Fold:
Amino acid sequence: MNYSIETNPLETLKSDLLIVGIYSNQQLSFAAKTLDVVTNGLLTSVVKRGDIAGKLNDTLLLNVVPNSNIERILLVGLGEQKPLSAKNYRKILTATINALKKLKVNSVAISLTDCDVEKVDLTWKTRQIVEIFEDGIYQFTECKTKPSDEITLKNIVITTTDSTAAETGLAQGLAIAEGVTLAKHLADLPANICTPTFLAQQALTLAGTFDAIETTILDVADMEKLGMGSFLAVARGSREPAKLISLEYRGGDKNSKPIVLIGKGLTFDSGGISLKAGAGMDEMKYDMCGGAAVLGTLQAAAQLNLPLNIVGLIPSTENMPDGQANKPGDILTSMSGKTIEVLNTDAEGRLILCDTLTYAKRFQPEVVIDLATLTGAVLVALGRVPSGLLGNDDALCNDLITASETANDSVWRLPLWEEYQEQLKSNFADLANIGGKDAGTITAACFLANFAEDFRWAHLDIAGTAWRTGSAKGATGRPVPLLTQYLLNRVHA
Ligand code: BES
Ligand code: MN
Ligand code: ZN
Structure:
């Protein structure tokens, strides 16, 4: 979709539809008042009639506007006349795009940045329009022979008084939305298309698009030389060759240390010999959502030309039950030298991430953040609302919490206390790869912490947030908004 910023008054614009807000108690927003004047009191009379109560998320289409050049008006309920919460502002925008999608319009003008929203500025309000509209129109149609409902909407004109702040919001919104779309698209692709080789190809494409990104693909032979015995043990169970995808974005000073983002890129998790149950196993194509979010975030950073150095690392393989697959009881030697007893082959994410964490050391990172669909247990603890956050550095965790609030991409911190390390003891190796039935998200992070001792590190467990299940099954693109906001905050810090 095309977006533009317009400082001319709403009613002078040429578009198929104008969007204005209405408060409950028949109060018109500023833009609605102006439109009311040019339409000879049309809005006042519609509101008086009670056709729209102005409750949050109400919408009403006026598809004929008498004696006027204006073709259509979409009234949107803003609730009580007082500053909106950020969440309610986002809900209103979601209701708006849902109403627009159903209409055969091409070009619309939206005045909703004139709403007062608590604790945010115009840049933020503009950015949300782009993020929420792009999220709303996303469809995965690639594998359907007859595409579903076609969306005719092409142009969005955002009306505002301050074009500088709005243009900043527009640029940020586009970068985040396009990063989210990339992540969603890769995640929604089935595992027979989106293989480790395919993901590696995507990373190479990003490097082709942006001069500041350089991509290196390590294959199995390279990883053997590095001694990645843990990662490679998972990869042995699959016929698809494993890849360690490395992207380096250089936007910062030559000497400034990079932020390293590591994304779990398990393109299909069958569980391996500890095979998962059949129901819902299709959703394990989403086990690469961490990797997809790394690609989406790097794209956003490059698009915004952020003056930072960022490294993206994506260990990518399938977890399959093959004659060569990991078996319960096998003992692996990781790249760090630590040995691991595989008590459950389905706890494979940590096995590929631990070697990637060790590999990350060579970049002398400022911080390392990994994102992984790591545990079903995070759904038990937190549901599908926040991502789980754990880490060995309070300042880094707090920075992520702050960013998550601005980005509306929530996280909740869980403790990473040493007491939990007890659960990972093995009779035969340095570590077991599972920690029993209690506190599964924490023990998974504790396992990783053993490989992140040399740097500031945070872990996001995104198993509950990276995709939706049920009738709205589909990827969310999280945590691209959170990570991009974290990077933006680093620039301005
Ligand atoms: N990819 C899964 C985590 C997962 C499970 C995400 C269900 C979303 C929904 C991960 O590799 C896994 O299988 N974890 C196991 C760990 C267990 C064996 C300790 C799990 O959560 O069941
Ligand atoms: Mn698994
Ligand atoms: Zn997995």
Summary: Residues 266, 269, 287, 348-349 surround zinc ion (ligand 3) (CB under 6 Å). The domain at 2-160 is CATH 3.40.220.10 (Leucine Aminopeptidase, subunit E; domain 1).
